[in-house]
Amino acid sequence: MAWEWSHTSEAYENARLNVEQLPRETLLTVLREWAYDDRVQAGRRKSFRLPAGVPQLDTGLLVEKVWARTEELSLCDNRGFRCWICPNGCHTVPYDPPKTQEAKGTEE
Asked: What are phi and psi of 77, to 5 degrees?
């Protein structure tokens, strides 16, 4: 179950910053899921292939593409703690401020 967004602008900025910290491979996986969903919605052959040229894009542009689709979808988990970044909600980011590299190192 999903909820529509109803957070503060600060929460959305935090979620976007969390998307920026995702590994490139995760961003590409999320974009594959969007490509698959687009094809299913259009009634075309189902395929997880990315559109031509997307894998070669700069990581910053991948973040922009993921975030644009995330804003378009505007869904979160049913408690409102995690922002959906893919059409099925299997990839999410928190609305909390991103952890710094120093903080990540102390948790491990």
From this structure: -65, 165
